User: What shape does this take?
Amino acid sequence: MILTGVLLAVIGLGLVGWFAARARARLLYTGRGSMHSMPGYHGWHMALWILVPGLLTWAVWSGIMPGLVNGAVMADPAAAQLPAEEMHRAAILAEAQTLAANPDAVAFDAKSQALAEPMRAAQTRFGFMGAALILIAALAGGGYGFTRVRARFPARTHVERAVLALLLAASLMAILTTFGIVASLLFEAGLFFKDVSPIAFLTGTHWAPGNARGVDIDGNFGAVPLFWGTIYIGAIIAMLVAIPLGLMSAIYLTQYASSTVRKWIKPTLEILAGIPTVVYGYFAALTVAPIIRDFAGSLGMANPSTESALAAGLVMGVMIIPFVSSMADDALAAVPRAMSDGSLALGATRSETIKKVLLPAALPGIVAGVMLAISRAIGETMIVVMAAGASARLSANPFDSMTTVTYQIVQMLTGDQEFNSPKTLSAFALGLVLFVVTLILNIIALRVVKRFREAYE
Amino acid sequence: MNSPDWNSPAAAKRLARRHAAERRFKLIGLGAILLSLAFLALLLFIMMHSGLGGLSWGFLSGSDSTDPHVAGIWSATKGSILTMLVTLVLSFPMGVLAAIYLEEFAPRSRWIEWVEVSINNLAAVPSIIFGLLGLAVFLNTMDLPRSSPLVGGLTLALMTMPVIVISGRNAIKAVPPSIRDAALAVGASKVQAVFHHVLPLALPGIMTGTIIGMARALGETAPLLMIGMRAFIVTPPGGVTDPSSVLPMQIFLWSDEIDKAFVQNTSAAIIVLLAFLLAMNGLAIYLRNKFEVRW
Assistant: This one.
């Protein structure tokens, strides 16, 4: 509570510093060329000298304060009767913290009631201590900054250097995120592979994490049925819908449609890509799946299930259409006009030109687009969660219920679970496989697209 | 070798066949578009048909409930708004600053190449992977409050940032070099040229990209499932650290309900979500048309 106030105070100080330094710099101005930097830069320089030390101290103190407070509370006589066990003690301390913040809260453990008072005292003590430290840091920085307001002082150069550092830090966020993904997936998957052998995981065909106990743990974590379901739904059924429809739409829009038609149809088609996947999932489960079940029933299948690979794949395919279409659009547009003009001049019809000249020339670009589309389809989650089902089976029957990698990740990590059991950790192993596969698809596709563009430029 | 007889019946027949093939091909193309659009129309029609009746003031202002007739979406809407605020506050400045650095200041080095590769890849990483990251880092390592808009917003910000960077770079690239040169020629520093002249001209493009990225984040469900935002929330969240739900999650939760009356609620919530998305995209298109400068 105190710390939040101090944070605002530091920001306020920064503002005051900005005005003060600017005002002083203005007083120093005696005419053209008398100063190195504009007054505003002196203001920014000063504000940085207040904010950077102040905020850094604030961040450090917020990090270490809970430890200090708990240490002080543990030293209190009332804490002597706390259980020695780590988990239990932490729970009571957390409860005391809630009580300290809000005396009306209900405590489940009487011990925490006794600790609330020392907790509040310690919080106040360390809060004021931190506030003093932070303010000293900010004021010291500000004092130093203020002495630098001189006519010849290159405030602008200093401020610009700080701006560049900020820009660099922002762009390094992307690397940090990638690193965070790889590190967290590798770490958790590493814990999983301590219990389950990677070979059994990648080649086993029996997936039943619920039964995984003791010695036969390896036999119940065979992920091949999940991989098959993912490929069957995302890379086969969805692509059978998306490639012909997306490619033919792109061909029609670029080669046949008038520019007015194109101007209206293209954004309308793009709406398909903007609809949230949860809406597609609901649509698949509510409308498409029952139709497919009845259809399977009329084909003579016994007990067709409501959840089917076909329903999920079909809807996913529709979702991908605009994506394939715009990739194909780009690929067709990159083919030099002279090639199709040459073919038309020889007397070929438009469709012959498209089939014999344009498509072969644009093929690498189209293939790359399809790879990106596949990578998107296999990472898609909500549609399969809502429409594909939970049964892990190796089947080529599209009317069967099938499960996918993403479905199982959701399944393993939601609901009741203790963390660090092989069951929950398996989600991270599946996530790792998914990440690696999509990464490879993306990298190859981006390479191909780049190479393909260069070939025609 | 005798020259072909162009007027023979055989030639005429061949020509007719080729023209028929041409017409067939064109029809197939038109059919593909119409089929896609028909699917879109069907989806929208079904949602409207089963959801419009459920839209009322009580529905918009109520909170989740086990009784479908009093259940509403205000708590989920408020959760969505808070989550989007966190996402915007984090991803917009970071994305714009990163785009400026990469486009205007970055030296050609191996490091920068890594940054570019990782941004392009992050934009294509499945969203559920970001959920796993959020679970492992924000919840298990940093102990931030579970199912809160804060964690949801952080996770979605990481997902949205690459989109903003990519669109920001394109917008900055589109500003002609003559603007920079003119600023530099009258004595501006490189930082001044970028922040005073290039950035304001690139801003409409950046805003368009940001809105599109935010619209995507607003419809996202999978990463939020990972960080536990599927709780049954009856009171609207008071702040970014309270447990909360978001609109797509509410749709997902209701779609699982057995009670038939929830079908209407789900569809009505979908209509609200789509209306939000449509408004955002409309705003993006408006901004682009109004402020875009063709150089």
Notes: The radius of gyration of chain B is 26 Å. The longest helix of chain B spans residues 9-51. Chain B has a mean pLDDT of 87. Residues 59-291 of chain B form a domain with the MetI-like fold fold (CATH 1.10.3720.10).
